Amino acid sequence: MSDRIQLLPEHLANQIAAGEVIQRPASVVKELLENAVDAGASDIQLIVEEAGKRLIQVVDNGCGMSETDARMSFERHATSKIRDIDDLYRIRTMGFRGEALASIAAVAEVEMQTRLNDQPLGTLIEIANGRVLRQEPCACQPGTLVKVKNLFFSVPARRHFLKSHAVELRHIWEEFNRVAMAFPDIGFSFIHEGELQIRLEKSTLKQRVIQLLGKTYADKLITVQEKTPYLHIQGFVGKPDTARKNRGEQYFFVNHRFIRSNYLHHAVTTAFAPMIPADSHPMYVLFLDIDPAEIDVNVHPTKQEIKFGDEKMIYAFVQAAVRHALAVASITPVLDFEVPADIQQAPALNRPLTPEQQFQISRSALYESFTQPHQAHMIAPKTSVSPTSAVSTAQPRTWQSLYERIQASADTLPQQTELSLPVEAAEEQLFPVQLHLKWILQPVKSGFILVHQHAAQERILYERYRRAFQHQPIATQACLFPQILELSAADRAWLEHIQADLQLLGYQIERAQDTEDFVITGIPADLTPGHEQQTLMQLLAQCREQTSNMQLEMREHIMRSLASQHAVPIGRPLTRREMQQLIDQLFACKEPELTPSGKRTFIWIQDATLEKWLANPLVTEHVHWPATQ
Ligand code: ADP
Ligand code: MG
Predict the structure, then answer these.
(1) Which residues does residue 477 pair with via DSSP β-bridges, in sequence order?
(2) Cα atoms found within 13 Å of the Cα of residue 434, Cβ hemisphere only
(3) Model pLDDT for residues 125-168, shown as the tens digit of each residue
(4) Bridge partners of 509?
(5) What are the structural domain ranges in the chain?
(6) What CATH class is the domain 207-328?
(7) Would the CB of 375 count as within 6 Å of ligand 1?
(8) Quick one: which atom of ligand 1 is closest to the CA of 146?
(9) 32 lines ligand 1 (CB under 6 A)
(10) How does pLDDT run across 200-209, given as a tens digit for each residue?
(11) Which of 51, 350, 368, 459 pairs as cysteine with 165 (C-beta 3.0–4.6 A)?
């Protein structure tokens, strides 16, 4: 009488469900391509006619299906990808809801041919209006072919809402790009109206990105790569000059699934913040890998939105990874000694200095001597301080005579800097030579010294820092990419404790707005940016190990840690000029012979010693450590 509720006929239920999953031809393309990927295909072909309104066909060489599975695959909630609710938190496949094929078959004419690899024959199924019209064995290639014809033929209202061919085709391209981008290991072809639109061979991610987004990106990609036990991010961001006013080339994947997230888009955009105008969008292709248990992909029928267990952490991670990548990329201008136009135009560089910054710079000793081109925006070079003039005042008696011998050798140096010397000049080559990218061999009158490049510079920097604490603070350059230091409460306390000391050494660290975090806003003027975060984290780790926090001892730790971290590493090639400078500066030190931790920085071997060795090679006590002359 008044009972009015009825179960919907299955076909109608499927049509209604299809409304969620299948909105336009591009949705069919997405579902079929994802099924082919899930089937383990290594090659996938997409064939489209009339922007997908007449035909969408996907052919794959994946695992194929048995006769029963072929029939089952069109049932709603039929899937081979999950079995129980726990599987939902282990999903590595694109599909899992088991409703795509059922939905498609409810609103189009579908033909499928599928064959298991080890079977001689495959299965052919034809379905229209949700009803099986034909099912029979057929001869076909291993893998699966799905043809979707006349989409929405039985739902005129929906067909009516489809847009022009051009618009629908653009949507198809978008879906194709997203799947093809996420799986560079798979070959793809896309054919429209009988014409090959694109052929993608299996390739690297970089090649795939350039093929899909255009050759203009060939030398415009900055690699992003960070790994933690919990999260892994990799991919590319475009250099700042590729940022555009309209959105378009932004691809974010989580476990290979393309997702939309304004939140994460914001994380990437703000990482670029000082370098691109506020209203433009950087290009990026980023892949986040995370334990599937930490995300929920089942919050949206097309799975383009997901929920993260800890969204804030992901935000910070993505932002930090992109910042880091940009900072590391900014090393390039140092290597070729030229600031690229895109970086030069960054607003951060063109902002005038604040009076406070100007004061800090002019107060510092480095202001006078600093001339490195990539930092020219910060520090105007004036007269340079000659390292030898410093020697005459600081040189302690002990090493005077050795250093004089080095100088005497240098005086006899030919003026030419080329390696091919005129014959007469080549008679005695007294300039320093680098050995094994580790030692500097410096001939001196009747002998030579062998300087350990890293140890020597540790000593030089250590004494430089000591002067910084006493009376000569080190100049700061403003960071192009201020780096966030995310610290534990204990480390924050340490950092606060040494913040003022670090400022004297050129590191400017400030509290981030509205958070507990610290931000590195300035680094020593003569440092190449990009490693500051790592350096300070390492310093804090060393502080943590210290039991005493007396100011004096803290300074000693800071000086040692930074000296060893900033000293030129073993393995770095040095120019002759750099070697000469290093030796000059070493002998300008108060204690040139030892590193701050007490290791030798060089060894002095005299002719006479060598002669003795040759006469009696077994007598090693003839190896003389530098003795007071
Ligand atoms: P889902 O992908 O969510 O499982 P679908 O409706 O897209 O649901 O597919 C249903 C099932 O059909 C899949 O779980 C899979 O077992 C099978 N299937 C679909 N397409 C293919 C294909 N191209 N190759 C092999 N198996 C397929
Ligand atoms: Mg699927």
Answers:
(1) 523
(2) 17
(3) 999 888 899 999 999 999 999 999 999 988 887 887 888 888 89
(4) 520
(5) 10-202, 207-328, 394-629
(6) alpha beta
(7) no
(8) 23
(9) no
(10) 999 999 999 9
(11) 51
